[in-house]
Amino acid sequence: MSASASSASDFNVAPILKYLSLPADHKPSPRDEPLEFLRDHLIQLPLELLRPFSTITTPRQRTQLLRIRNRRTTYACSAEGRKALSWVEARKEDSLAYEAFMISSTGTQGMPLAQDPTDPERAYRKGEEEGGEERKWVESSFMDGAKGHIGEGKLAALLGQFEEEREAERLRDMRREIREREQAQRESEPEEEEEEEEEGEESPTNPIYDSPGDARSSFERVIRDKFIDGLLEWMDYDTVDWDDRWDDDGRDDEDKWFDEEEES
After folding, report:
1. Which runs of consecutive H residues, i.e. helices, occur in 51-193?
2. Alpha-carbon distance 20 to 41, whole Å?
3. What is the pTM assigned to this prediction?
4. What is the DSSP letter of 54?
5. Rg (CA), the chain
6. Is 76 exposed, middle or buried (0-12, 13-18, 19+ CB in 10 A)?
7. pLDDT digits (tens, 9 = 90+) for 90-140
8. Contacts of 11 (CB under 8 A, 6+ apart)
């Protein structure tokens, strides 16, 4: 029996139906048709009866529910959400995705990285910097007045070149790992609907940005969209999907949905 099938069989519908005063044979069934059931009763159920639905539905599937999608949108626009979905947090959770995006969106061979998350605009090229440090060390310390004995700085240049080659090799390994991970993900994911495949084919490639700051802002927009679509693997969706404090009841749900579509 698969894990999902096991979760469905273990799902206890009795407390849910009792709370809502519904018969045992109610349709749609909370266990067999959870999305349809949630569409009808989500706002009526307390948190403790909603959490079990995470065992039989995925964040991606729950994106179909308008109220949950709007909760995620409200969260993403809040101060709490902006911090949780910032490029700093995203890089901590998935540094490979961050570095891959920065490489493709800055159009450079080197990889802009922040030396310190508290000073995000201090970008550098790691290989070139460390290569320069190797040259300076040899010229100022190791040689120490003995220039010319080993070819007038040739050793310094050689060590610097080695350091840059090590960094280039690291980048090649990283790109290979990215390709392997993407291939594995494609093979493990179930076949998407034709409409979704067409949308994916039409998606534009990452534009080239003049500065790391602009690229990071774009990366945060990508993270936000992935979160709303239920695709952010490291995010705890339960804290948003089942929490009614992220409901924006001051506006009609359909108005909010159409506004979001127009902005995108």
Report:
1. 59-62, 66-77, 79-84, 87-93, 95-106, 126-137, 154-188
2. 9
3. 0.58
4. G
5. 26
6. buried
7. 888 877 777 777 776 655 433 444 443 333 344 334 444 555 565 565 556
8. 30, 31, 52, 55, 56
